Amino acid sequence: MSALMIKAEHVSKYYRLGKLGSGRLREDLANWIKRRPAVSNEINEHSKQEIWALRNVNFEVQRGEVLGFIGNNGAGKSTLLKIISRITLPTSGCVYGNGRIASLLEIGTGFHIELTGRENIYLNGNILGMNKKEITSRLDEIIDFSGIERFIDTPVKRYSSGMYMRLAFAVAAHLDPEILIVDEVLAVGDAEFQRKCLGKMKEVSSQQGKTVLFVSHNMQALKNLCHRCITLQQGEIIDEGKPEIVIGNYLKKQQNNFTYQSYEAPESAPGNDYIRIKKAALTADYIDGFDIVDIRTPLHIHFEFWYKDIDPGSLIVGVHLFTFSGECIFDICSEPKKYNNGLYEVDCNIPGNFLNDGNYYISVVFVKNTTQRLFYFEACLSFEVQDYRSDTAWFGKWIGYVRPSFPVIVKAKPE
Fold it and tell me: Which residues form the ABC transporter domain (predicted)?
């Protein structure tokens, strides 16, 4: 059997914005055919009524490979995965698949809300082409991995989003697919289960030889899990290669010296039902009149957020600092404390003579009761540290991620 599992050739996907709206099927169909353009250079790039979610996408995936996709919202990542999963058809081009595909693209995909968790396991198994005996042989393992044994015979319409996610991933990962497709849905659920899912994906690719396609905004997960990454921008592949290189290029382009963002109202702010970000800011205590961040420059991190929870628990706010290649420099957090609903601010200082020169980004995480991740505001701030010292004879790149100014004492020892 060939080692080639997926091949995409000249895949493009076109959507028309808005509604057809004539009220007559024949007229709507005729208008749609009339307005549907061919993939060519004659496309009106500035049309407000049409959008190319994908344009001429080509790539191959080998057996046992974990391929990651990164890009801004609207870059075409989810559309591409839906085409590979055969949920939607491309406007032009084609995708060849070699093996059974299990996809996890949005919460509850393939579930029937009136059926219990146990019944949905059998339903999904049948969709994947497995018989009842094969599903039963894996049933206990699936239920145990999901961690929702107590509710397995409850209709899934009563599940929380986290419970939905647990069962959906457990089914997709254990029903023996040759190809596993996972979108950003792993952002739902607590941190412990996310680590469990990432570990399972690593296991199925390295030990079982399965192929995994993975979309995430978690750069560290992509770097640790994937063999190769592809960056999509406005439906086109703009970068492809080793994860650390592709991720570094993406973050440099997207987040270079992004030191401030602010929002007036919770409705327009990034976040979810629990956390909404009002402000994120990075300020520098510049030295010697230089308007740059030098290795000696102290930095101040400031966040403001709205907190809303009908059942408030112990809240922890963590600040993560990463290099652009994805290595974590530090992970520090506040003391666990119960907060009422309202507006709060977070402050953190990075002293001078701590970071090496290079490019960095900051993420902030909100965790309830030490395990439930409420929101992860990733790569929300970024900055570059430069070395402008004039009191040294060495101007090469210093090794290491930090350059603390610890005293090193050398003195004569009496013989």
Answer: 38-259
